[in-house]
Specification:
single chain, alpha/beta, four-stranded mixed sheet, 2 helices, 7 strands, binds fe (ii) ion
Length: about 120
């Protein structure tokens, strides 16, 4: 079983890579943009695909950093620190079932769950 984590910005690049690897790997998943896409699928060649897995980290944040500091940076254009945000964590990703003999994906299920603080 082969899994490709394609760390890239453009969705077109990720989709093209997924299509190019269809039938050659079990799963192509995009990362980097931190926002989960809803396009999970299995291509004809048996490769599961998701353009972006999404983020695992603080739910009330800007890509995991404290909101106020990031907003201040964009408003002022001045450099500042970006402390890690706290609070409840969101867990995003996908679970792929793969036929061990053929390496073909047989199912993909995207998940996006808020883990409440205990
Ligand atoms: Fe990145």
């Amino acid at each position: 079983m082969l899994v490709v984590d394609f760390h890239a910005e453009a969705t077109s690049e990720k989709i093209a890579m997924g299509r190019a690897l269809d039938g050659k790997v079990s799963f192509v998943v995009g990362t980097h943009t931190h926002v989960q896409t809803a396009d999970e699928t299995i291509f004809d060649g048996g490769t599961a695909y998701l353009t972006d897995a999404g983020m695992c980290g603080p739910d009330v944040s800007v890509l995991g950093r404290q909101v106020d500091s990031v907003v201040w940076k964009f408003r002022t254009g001045l450099p500042t620190r970006f402390p890690i945000a706290g609070g409840a964590v969101r867990l995003c990703g996908a679970i792929v079932d793969v036929d061990e003999e053929s390496g073909r994906a047989v199912a993909i299920k995207r998940f996006n769950r808020l883990l409440e603080e205990s």
